[in-house]
Amino acid sequence: MVAHLASADLLANGLPKVLTGLQIISVPGQGRLMDLSLKDNLLICFISRNGSILIPSGSDSIQVGDTVMVVTTHTGFNDLRDILK
Questions:
Q1: Positions in the chain short of pLDDT 70
Q2: How many other CB atoms are there within 10 angstroms of residue 66's CB atom?
Q3: What CA–CA distance (Å, rounded) separates 1 from 38?
C-alpha cells in the first residue's frame, strides 16, 4: 500500500510517466524484485531507504518505509500493487 502517490507527465502522447513519492507503508508480496510479477513497460528507477538512494537490481527488495520511483507508460496507477500483474 502507498501512503502518497503523485504522477507527472514527462512528455505528451503516451510517452513515459513518472510516478514519484511512492512511500511504502506495507509491501505487496515478499522477496526480491526478480521474484515479483511486474507489469510490462515499467522501470523501478530507484529505492530511497533510510536516506540512501539504491539503484535496484533483481536481488533487491522493497521494504516498509522505502520510497520508490517508477517510470511507466501505464496510466491510472494509484497504489504500488498496481505495478504487479
A1: 1-30
A2: 20
A3: 15
- Spatial separation of the C-alpha atoms in residues 85 and 83, rounded to whole Å: 7
Give pLDDT, residue 2. Answer: 42
Q: Scan for cell 539504491, then name that residue.
A: 54
Q: Starting from the edge strand earliest in sequence, which strands make up the sheet with 17-23, in order? A: 6-9, 17-23, 67-72, 42-49, 52-54
Residue 21: partners with Cβ closer than 8 Å, 6 or more residues away: 4, 5, 6, 67
- 11: phi then psi, degrees, rounded to nearest 5: -140, 160
Cell triple for 49: 531507504
Per residue in 65-79, pLDDT (tens digit) is 888 888 877 777 777
| Concatenated DSSP letters of the chain | -BS--EEEESSSTT--EEEEEEEBSS-SS-S-GGGS-BPSSEEEEEEEETTEEE---TT----TT-EEEEEES-----SGGGGB-
